[in-house]
Each structure stands twice: as structure tokens, then as C-alpha cells.
């Protein structure tokens, strides 16, 4: 297992348990437990008579962590560890990405205190425990941890604001401009970044709200984006997610069990040429808000859509044949000599084989923020890509896509950010401590 941090999930991994739920076994167990609980409450209510209201009141006051009925609520990851959570775990159903800027007058000392408060709050939230003090308003009180992960990162501007410019990693150099960029600066970049992911929408929102309240006067929200994915257990078996264009998206992601996964995704122990030691076991997150022109996309025939990606829409199999996980055959032609995976197909242009081995771990969310004035959905992909160095992951691939990707006609890059995500915090420590106190 490449993830060195302790990741605890009760009894069985949530997806396995959800799979069972769809098959019936766990469902009937859950129903029995549910009925049992309702029955007990009902009996208790009868016996308690008029005191039922008082009991409910005292329960809501003592904030005892709940034992969730279902596997979705029970999924739990650990905040503390060598690496931060939210990178290698299976993608959750709900996500919030938020950037904050330090307030005028706030510097290294205030940032350090904020990261300490944030880390302490994140550890409790991820354990399914309420956060002490005024920050936690109880939005998630009835739910378990629901596989919550909270991840913190630093933007390039953070280092200037805190007098730490000489400790900024070379790998955090600004992303180059791409010809297709239509970036909104107000929704790009930021001093601090928080990624919140959970399988329950209230748990995810509660974490966002707590962390926002914990900023006090030290930092202000810069931008925030909300995304979603398929809910675990919604499918007959664990399946790769689909995006809002209907494509199976994530098939050729590197896997934690691959020999070179750590090298591609995480900064090695001690750092490297472009990442200082305080970044060891950390990673770099490229965040892009990419709107999909869904009305134009939906007008394309199935064959046209499949040729844009180079894979079948139904199951994600390459157009060169096989099933979803068959490697693309980039040379294979049809009887007329036409490449089966077209020369500008997204899967061909983004493949490591055609980009000098450039590799990243994609962990995106879909988003839908209502409709634009012309009636088109304001929807697309909150693209989050993880790598040990953006110059060996996102940048070379996006340079190629920018020049010749058939998908470009149907998408717009609207916002962009790059964050240095340090290694995880040990018990009693906080994320970024080696930078801020080193
Ligand atoms: C610069 C990096 C990438 C951007 C930006 C990007 C946007 C984007 N991608 C899809 C849909 C699919 N992408 C797929 C594969 C794929 N995409 C990238 C990189 C970027 N995509 C890579 C590195 C890969 C893997 C290539 C490989 O190794 O074969 C696929 C195919 C299935 C899969 O492997 O995941 C789809 C589908 C959209 C819709 C999008 C912007 C909105
Ligand atoms: Fe892609």
C-alpha cells in the first residue's frame, strides 16, 4: 500500500459494503437495524410519555458522536499521517474547493495559528466528532464521518504574504498561459486552499462552514466551488465515474499499487531539486474550472462523441478494441487505413506515451451552478490533478491538449490555480508546521 498514513474504514471498505447493499444483503441488515432502532425508540417514547421531548432536547445538547446506521456514514479516514488525506482515497460524492486570502496585517504568526486551528478541527471532523467552541453549529450531528477528507494547500502568493518567499518551492512556479484559457482572476489562485470531500452533503458543508468560521479575522474567502460525483453504492459494482458529458472518466489514472505511483504523485522523502524538504510526502494540486458546452456536445452523434475522446461512451473501452482497461492501441487502423483512435482524440493526446511519460492523478468533481443568461447549463468539471511536480504532470499534457485536442471545441477553461500541498501532520502537529516553524 503506497499510502503511508493510517486509513481506517470500519470493518469493510465502504464501496464493498455499498456493493452488498445494492445486492440486498446489507440492505436487509440495515432495514433490520433500522426497524430495531425505530422500535426501541417507539417503545421508549411510549414508556417515557411526556418526558420524550426533554430526552430529545438533552440528546441534542450532549453532542455524543452517533453510530451511523449505514455504511456510507461509517466510512472514515484518518487526518494524521505521513501524507494528507484527500489524494489517494476513492473520490467521494460531494466536494468543496475553497481558496482564502490572508487578511491585511496577517502574516506568518497568524497563518501558523490558523493552520493549527484548521488541522485540529479537520482531525475531529474526519473522526465524526463535533468541533469544540463556536465554530461547529451541528449541521452534521446526526451523521457519521461519511469518508470526510480535508486537505490544505498553499498558493504562491502565501509565501510573499508571510515573508517566506525564499522557501517557496521552485515547482510552484505559475502555470504558463495556454491559448484556450479564458480565466477569471477572481476565481483563480489564492493564498490558502482547502479541499473538502465527503460522501454526505451535510457533512461536507459542515466542514466547510467550520473551517470558514475558524478563519476569524485572519483570512477571507476568495472563491469557493462545489462539486459532486456518483454516490458510492449507486452502481451494481464499483465502476469508474462518469462526467457530465456521459463519458467514463478516470480509467487510465495511475493506481496506488503501480510501482511508479509514488514517484509521479508525491514529493520524495527529503524533497528534491524543485521541492524543499518541508514538502516531503506532499504533492501539487492543479485546479481548473472547466465549463462544458453541453448543448453543443449533446448535438453530436454518438460516433462523433466517441471519436472526440477515442473511447466508447457506453463502457469506456478504447476505439482500438477490448474492454475498459485494455491499453489503447495508438497504431491500429480500420480497413480504409484510418486510425481507430483519431490523431486528435483526447485520450491519445493526453496519454503519457505521447507526452514524454507525463503523469498525474486526476480526482475531479462535476459541477452545476444553474443556467447562464442564454439558458445553457453552467456546468462542467472541477478538474483536480495531483503530481510530484506540475512540470512533469499537468503542464506538458495541457500544452499538448492546447494545441490539438478534439475536446477543446466543447470546453472552456474558466479558472485556474496551483497549490503546494505539504505532507500530513502527526498527532499534535499541524499541516505546514515544518514550513511555518522551520
Ligand atoms: C491537462 C490535463 C487534462 C485536462 C485539462 C483534461 C480535461 C478533460 N478530460 C476529460 C475527459 C476524459 N479524459 C480522459 C483521459 C485523460 N485526460 C487526461 C488529462 C486531462 N484531461 C489524461 C492524462 C488522461 C489519461 C490518458 C491516458 O493515460 O490514456 C478520458 C478517458 C478515460 C480516462 O482514462 O480517464 C476522458 C473521458 C474531460 C471531459 C475534460 C474537461 C472537461
Ligand atoms: Fe481528460
Automatic annotation (TrEMBL):
NCBIfam families: Dyp_perox_fam (TIGR01413), tat_substr_1 (TIGR01412)
Subcellular location: Cell envelope
Biological process terms in GO annotation: iron import into cell
Occurrences of domain Dyp-type peroxidase N-terminal (ranges): 84-229
Similarity section: Belongs to the DyP-type peroxidase family.
Cofactor(s), by name: heme b
Name of the protein: Deferrochelatase
Bias (Basic and acidic residues): 1-20
Keywords: Heme, Iron, Lyase, Metal-binding, Oxidoreductase, Peroxidase, Signal
Documented EC number(s): 1.11.1.-
